What we know:
heterotrimer; B: alpha+beta; C: 9 helices; binds iron/sulfur cluster
Amino acid sequence: xxxxxxxxGMSRRRFLTLAGGTAGAATLAAxxxxxxxxxxxxxxxxxxxxQKTHQTDVLVIGGGMAGLxxxxxxxxxxxxxxxxxxxxxxxxxxxxFAKGIFxxxxxxxxxxxxxxxxxxxxxxxxxxxxxxxRQMAEHSAARVAELRDWGFxxxxxxxxxxxxxxxARGIPLIERVMxxxxxxxxxxxxxxxxxxxxxGHLIQVSAKSVVLCTGAGGFKPNGFPICDLTHDGTVMAYRxxxxxxxxxxxxxxxxQAQNPAAxxxxxxxxxxxxxxxxxxxxxxxxxxxxxxxxxxxxxxLPPGPPDRLLGRLDGxxxxxxxxxxxxxxxxxxxxxxxxxxxxxxxxxxADGGAGGGPGGxxxxxxxxxxxxxxxxxxxxxxxxxxxxxINDRCESxxxxxxxxxxxxxxxxxxxxxxQIGSSLAGSAVQGAVAGEAAAGxxxxxxxxxxxxxxxxxxxNEMLAPLRREAGYGPAWVTQxxxxxxxxxxxxxxxxxSMLNAALAYIEELRDHHLPMLCAGDLHELxxxxxxxxxxxxxxxxxxxxxxxxxxxxxxxxxxxPEMDDANWQAWINIHQGxxxxxxxxxxxFDRWPA
Amino acid sequence: MAxxxxxxxxxxxxxxxxxxTDVIRMDPRTGKAFIQYVAxxxxxxxCRMYCPVDxxxxxxxxxxxxxxxxx
Amino acid sequence: MRSDTDRCRLIAAASxxxxxxxxxxxxxxxxxxxxxxxxxxxxxxxxFFLLFGQFLLGRGARFAPEGIRFGRLLNLHKIIGYxxxxxxxxxxxxxxxxxxxxxxVSPGDALMQILTTLDSLGVVLGMxxxxxxxxxxxxxxxxxxxxxxxxxxxxxxALLSVLLVVVASWHxxxxxxxxxxxxxxxxxxxxxxxxxxxxxxxxxxxxxxxxQTRGARP
Lengths: 594, 71, 218
Ligand SMILES: Cc1cc2nc3c(=O)[nH]c(=O)nc-3n(C[C@H](O)[C@H](O)[C@H](O)COP(=O)(O)OP(=O)(O)OC[C@H]3O[C@@H](n4cnc5c(N)ncnc54)[C@H](O)[C@@H]3O)c2cc1C
Ligand code: SF4
Ligand code: SF4
């Protein structure tokens, strides 16, 4: 590894990885990149980067649906707001790809709010937090109306619509900032730090409160447009003592066998569509049924509606009564809450597995071609993973630290997709709630002053990969992690022995490779931090999956295939113990954290 | 190979901003966008959809780095 | 009979100018685009290359193939001139037009983005060319109404045309989607040829004062 200031733009390591064979070299030539490629020199010295400091009441991190509403509502509640985002407003994270947003209208649905919440709870097998389910539905129409005013529904691209309310309020927005650290001081949040991807400035924001809107994440999977999301917010918060939940759940979106990495093509033009509004339609979708079929029957899975072709299978994930078939109409009355028995559905249903978008019916029309698994590997059901809320105000266990949207483990939908379009709506609603709450909180506290040595330590950790003379490239470590975590028999169809085996690998990456991650330029510095975050996320996923010795919703243990209501009416929360070890604990479904 | 070429770029920088995975950068010499980190392209087409002159071409296939023992 | 030969020669001359770029295009390894986009590109490219031909069809016509009458040539010069200029004047709009039929940034927003990218040399050159074309077109159409006498106009027309061909070529080399090294070389050569034709005409006029009163009038 060359020192960064000698780096000629294309690091040697990257070159070796890409050009590792003649095939690689031919690819480079075919890409016509010989002279221009790698021209963007990391023409900066990590010991001499510009420092930019900011002060604000509320710092919003993330520029998706949740970040937008957090910023706007915190501003409207009278707070000074600054927004930092790794990517562009409305053009990063998952928000750009979601096309259906839910708005609850009791009259149109012919269903009361209470009935809606009860229906979601029934499908979610108790894994949802009804307080957040209700909050989402209750405020959804108001958020949708605001979005309509801003022009959200007029374009397939949301940057312009999102910029309108931000510009009208003059809210400072700094894009292309990789936030690497949350800063805690004297037991409460004090701000955050990161670096800009283009000019390599160190950004340090002192804030009375922080709203994490950093979305969810994955293992940079092929086939789902979430390669910019690596659970950064969750891991940063975990490192300063926040509680994290939901790591055992899985999003079960399949990809397609042909060109599995082509997200755009896999969604058949959906990304080019304008968003629209969805109404009530409660389901039990996109768990790991398809993965189970592939595990037991082998590949390839025939294309088309899987249930027709595959028939019944014994075992496998179970469905709540009345949700026997994906997208099937819910039965009147009854349900798991009143003790209705569980039985196994035909697997997997019509357009359930391969069809609908996450929380949306805007999915690709039946993703043609044989389905393959792991397209969203590393991501859980939206809103089931993230920071543990201690109340209905999106507050975490660290005073002043809030989270919203996919970054908050609100269990709004439960541990399975239950309502079309509610993911986007939930991010909007929670963003607004968290923004207002953070503004209120910051009124009552003084501006924190973080000691210089703490800031110096943060800076050191942030830039360490640039300073390492030798080590491991983030791309290689990521590839290795993917090889360990993404196989169907590790991530989706779980059992004790494989989870332990994978954990041994991940611990090795954590203890030996993570401390030696290195970077030749700012892009790689970002990758290095993302890789470190993925390693911790993988560990959380494995430990939580090992702990939950039952199967429920999108978590399936082939060695514990039944739902165990006696022991597992509980979520799993994870935090860092005083000794630095990962600690897991149960939180009963019907209670806030202790 | 994912994002594959940029032809007719006017150098507005929109695609650099709009790429979630930081694949594209501006070349300070030519003032135009170029594909710098193609291995990280997630084939989402946001850059293409945001480009005002539709300069960006993307193919659905992806070249994956070869497997090596360390790197 | 006579006019048939004229026509043949003219068509031959025109295709001389249009063929090379078309050949280059089919030969080149350009990513496939929709029919609408390719058609618009071809039209624009064709119009651009016809611009060079205008120098041969103007008073430079004395260097054009023998046996073609100046009057016909000038007529052709006018027809081509007005159509090419109209097409190139809408060229910025044609670039963003396909956006109306596909998902992505809207044509209006795309145009705004282009027009506000003023730190791009190519964009500024394009704007200058656009204004030059507008002025050339307008002064030709409205020469009489503007009260320009023929010789002043002729000088103005020649000067603006030379300026245009330089600025527009630069613009095309700087920004052209289809401009690779070969196309750039062709454009440079054609631009040089065009400028040479005008210089030669000027030298001829200077050394041959009679010609200054004798020029064919449009
Ligand atoms: C293909 C696809 C289709 C979908 N379809 C639907 C649908 O039809 N209906 C529906 O309801 N939902 C759908 N979803 C889900 C929905 O998009 C998400 O639940 C929702 O957009 C999440 O919004 P968010 O603001 O919470 O997070 P995101 O939109 O993911 O935003 C996260 C933000 O945080 C920033 N960020 C991350 N890390 C950092 C860091 N370290 N430093 C600084 N900034 C950082 C990112 O740049 C980004 O701006 C879909 C998702 C996908 C991928
Ligand atoms: S958006 Fe298009 S025109 Fe603008 S810099 Fe990128 S490729 Fe060039
Ligand atoms: S397709 Fe997506 S990931 Fe690839 S360069 Fe374009 S914006 Fe970036």
